Amino acid sequence: MMKTKNMHITSSLWLLRVVLLATTLSLAMPDAAIAQEKKPRRKFKAWLMCADSLRLELRRSADRGQMLQWTDSVIMAEINKNKMSEKRKQRYMRRHIKIQKRLARYDRQLFRGDSLLAANYHKVKYDTAYIGRPDARWTIKYRGNLSGADMRTTSVTDGVQNRSRVTADCRGTLSMAVAYRGLGLGVAVNPAKFAGKCKDFEYNLNSYSNRYGFDVVFLSSKTYHGYKAADVERIDIHKGQISQNALNLNFYYAFNFRRFSFPAAFSQSYIQKRSAGSWMIGASFDGSKTELSDMTIRLNEFAVGAGYAYNLVAFSHRLFHLSALPTVTVYSHDYTKTKTTADDGNDQTATSTMRHDMKYHFPSAIITGRAAAVYSWRNKFAGTTAVYNYSVAGDEDHLQVRRNKWRVRMFFGFRF
After folding, report:
1. Cβ-proximal residues to 107 (8 Å cutoff; 6+ apart), any chain
2. Which of 26, 156, 223, 377 is packed most tightly, with the most Cβ within 10 A?
């Protein structure tokens, strides 16, 4: 019974904290009708100043190790202004003190954990004249993503060249990411998926640091459509006739990591102060399973190579990035399976499967290109990034497959 009562008191006090904070913010917001008559810009500026003061108070409380107790002064001011009886105030204060002791214990634990994160966050392993860390704990970022894929095949059968080109539907997602001292978490939604208009699934995992990083992209698509041509004959390919599951991996290692920063362009967890570039080495993997009505194509390609990346800082607020990492296939395990149907002589049909290994043909390669443009002002930033993957496998005498995969991301964020 006492545990239930304490939980009720704790939840009531937390509800009071939220209500008081919302009341403080609402007092700073101008009435719409008054704002139109009496200098709306001045009222909006006052609202921004109030919000900024709350942000600064939260940051000072975190610096003192009182992250969970930062609204105490606001709560006490409201209690003193309240016309409740003295006996009720004393009863509330006794409860308040008990809760404050518990919050103080949690604050000490949070402060120790924050100190460890801060030590790692501000550890200097780079040239501070070229790279820096944002002077903020939190980063909130809103993103819009657009991605697509297409595939081309070329083969020769009985001296006749066969070609095909199919494209998957573009996929758009909206996402939000929150990071604390470099540790982030994001969530993305596809509006078309919720509406039942998108049958494709795509998963992206990205990790960028100054020294090394990687991209993982998995795509499951049933919306490929296009055409195939044999000599002068052309046949349309409709959605649903081709299904594909594809996995792309790429990894980079930057040699000039003390002066050049990939995260400055792609995750905004660092700041590039001066222009710099870096040679890099990397590895790529491209695996896919493509199923047609009478054929299955399996590709497994592993490649290594080297490339170059450059960050251009213009007018101290603009950052432009461009990089290319071509890799040459050193291992491949590619083959096709073809289904054939024949009459067995008893008015029945028999289905057999024939496997054919695809020959390696130089230069079989996987190329990864990246580009970015970022504009920063005060504690805000906005920009766009793009990642492009191209792979080619097989031999034209039997079957050659070329795949393109791209993603464009636009974002806006702020730090505090």
Report:
1. 65, 66, 67, 68, 69
2. 223
